[in-house]
Each structure stands twice: as C-alpha cells, then as structure tokens.
C-alpha cells in the first residue's frame, strides 16, 4: 500500500512552543544535507506542489562541498557505457547485463529531469553543469580483449547501447584516446569501446544551481552550519529534529512531517539516531579516494574522454581506474585514479570517531562478518595506502605510457561509505551500490551507499516520492506533473526502444550532449 505524508499546511512557515519552551519551526519536509540527493528531492517536490514548506539543513557553511563537490567525485554521468564492473562475466562465460541496463536507464531519467529544468529556466545553460565527454573502455592482453569484445557484442545488440563502437585497430583507438595510445607497440593486443555522447557532470555546480532556484521560491529555507543532534518521532508521526548552530551557537528545533536523510556518509549515524526498525543492523565501511591531477595544460588539451579500465582484484567499484577529462567550475582538468584509502571518517570533513561511534550491538555481528569475509579488499586498501607517488604514476602509465612523475600531483577526494547490512548466507553483507531505506509509515527516508550515486539521484528520489508521498502521487495533478518532469515515468525504456530513442533524442539536444566535444 502506498504510504502517505500529511498534506501541505495552508499557512506560511510559522513557529510553535515545544515542551522545553524552545522555539520550533514547523515544516512539511526537512532535507538533511545540501548535496545532490537532497537538492534533487527538493526540486522534485517543489515542482509537484509549490506550496510545500521545505527546509534544508547543511552542516557546512556552503552548499554541496562534501561528496557532491566537483573535486570529490569522478563526475562521470554513470550510464554503464564504460564502467566494466557493471557487466561482470559469469561462470559460464556470458556477460551479466542486468546492472548495466538498470544504471543506463536510471541515468536517462536524470537527463530527462535536468532537460525539463533547463527548458523551464530553472537551471542555467547546460555547459554550466554538464559537458559532452565520450565514454570509453580500454583494455590490454588477450583475456581482457576477449572480455571487452564479448561485452560489446552483448550490449550493442540492445537499443540502450546501440551506438557503442568497438575497435582493436591502433589507428582508430589513437583517434579516440591519443594519450592512451602514445608509444604503444604495433603488436600490443589492445581494445577499446566508445560512446561519443557520454557526459562529464559537475554535480556540485548542479546542486548549487538547484538550491539557488529553490531559494527563489516561496516556503523554502536553507539553514547552513547546522548539525542534526537528535531526531525524535512524535505521537502524530511527525519528527522533532534538534539542530546545533555551529556558527552562532545555540540550539534550534524543527518539527517536520517528513524527513529525508541525504547527508552522504553522514546519513548512517543520522539513521541510527532516528532508530527506526527498518534501519536496524546497518553499518558502514568508509573508503577514501585520491586522484593524480595533471599540472601541464598542454597534456590536458590532448585528452577528451573518460577512459575506464579493469578493476584490480578486490577493489571496490569506486576504485576502477580511469583517465578522466573533467570540467570543474569552467576549467578543464585531467585526472587519473581514484586510488583508494582507508580512514575511520564518514565524511571528508568528518571525525576519526565516525566509524567507532557507528558500531551498535545490532550491527556488530554483520560488521565483523564483513571484515572476516573481505580480506581481499583489506589487502587491496593496505596496498593502496602504502603506495608511493612513483608507484601511482606507474599505474597511470598503463593508460598514458609517457606520463612523468613531476607532471602529476596527488589530490584527496571525498569519502564513500559502503553499506554493511545483515546477510542471508552470512551474518553480514558488504554492498557497493546505493540503497533507499524508508520508515514503514513513510515519515522518514534515508539514502545509504556510494556507487553509482548522484548519476541516479532522480530515480532514487522518485522512489522516495512513491514510498512516502503515495497518496499525493495518486492525485491527477501529481500524475500529470511527474510525466512532464520525466516523460518515461512508469514505463520501461529497457523494453520500449521507441520510448528510449525518443527521450534520448530530446535530452541529447536540450543538454547539448550531441555537440562535438
């Protein structure tokens, strides 16, 4: 049965007196975190019902400066065009495409929503947040070439991937990725694929643009430098949320009929504070990331692609190596990595006590089980942390043979907290995806996990609308509006080729992804 949230109150934001005589602000929706997820949900809800009273709180003094910031993530519009870990080879030698199709069509949903916002003037010109960047895969060695050829043959038969190109020809590959093919011996066994209309997304810029638009609308308020100290559900189903103001000091209270915990790595501790049954047993495994950043403009200008390779054995998905063209705040950059690391922080600007403080009696057994059963990952992380700068550049030379140590510097990216949850076959299971958790009564939702993250934000947030605003979604006005936002809503782009082709033609045009990069 669909869950419902209370209808919007007819009056502007107002205050009531709580039992402690502290001032409490009352809203319909409280968004915790000012990153890609919360801003997306805020935009969707405001499009569906402009009268909703929405408050967004952020622990930092700026919007989208943690995981969503351009320098803290790969910026890849994840569509499974180049990410080989989304198409694992099965025991019988076949390619499992289920995840690739799901991610591809989820990203198409995001593109549709962004296109609508651009058309309506709610977002600026597309190049302010998204740029065409071909998505390529590159492998070497007979076994890997065979895998990539098989992957291409499987995916390209489907309409979602019909524009994928494949080549083992050195001249063709040199045209697609000049740096990668420099000084390759003619006898080297290599292969690559390409989808020319892949994208580079500055999710930080996108989130900040959405917040700017939200701030221009009635009944929306952004509160920066606020830490959520406690969440307490009331008898009427609403939540009293206690905030600490880190800039001015003092305590504030917000009463909200719906709460979304979209705080990246900080979502798990907040979910534990909420103490809903659906969140029991969850733990987190933080993985940090580092990039090699090119310092020479003449090298940067020679590369225009996202080139993904094969992940090392035991590596988490966020550590699939890639040589990446980026456009961050209007400047073109070239990055290689990411190199994984380990800290006990859940956020880049978090505390080393984040992991120890997240351990509870209910998740201790799953976390110990994951630690025992993932020794490959542990060994991999240790090896990554211990690498020297020269060793990291050696890894880069697999993608750019002429790379010199002095042309690259190390930059620290954001934290990603992988999900640990109770398992069926083992006490605990380590998940590398993203997962939406909702309270049974629909009054609270949280998003945990990392990859593919912000690329599928619109699909993830629509699932929250379905779960937590189910009765409102049955209204004709919401049904009509949601199909304006996402024309493919409620239909399968995996099964309907005509639908996929139609919406893709529109989004490539509106977002200018069909122009020459």
TrEMBL record:
It is an enzyme of class 1 (oxidoreductase). Its cofactor is FAD. One of its GO terms (molecular function) is (S)-2-hydroxyglutarate dehydrogenase activity. Keywords: FAD, Flavoprotein, Oxidoreductase, Tricarboxylic acid cycle. One of its GO terms (biological process) is tricarboxylic acid cycle. Pathway: Carbohydrate metabolism; tricarboxylic acid cycle; oxaloacetate from (S)-malate (quinone route): step 1/1. It catalyses: (S)-malate + a quinone = a quinol + oxaloacetate. This is Probable malate:quinone oxidoreductase. SUPFAM superfamilies: FAD/NAD(P)-binding domain (SSF51905). NCBIfam families: mal_quin_oxido, PRK05257.1-1, PRK05257.1-4, PRK05257.2-1, PRK05257.2-4, PRK05257.3-2, PRK05257.3-4, PRK13339.1. Its EC number is 1.1.5.4. Pfam families: Mqo. Belongs to the MQO family. It comes from the Bacteria.
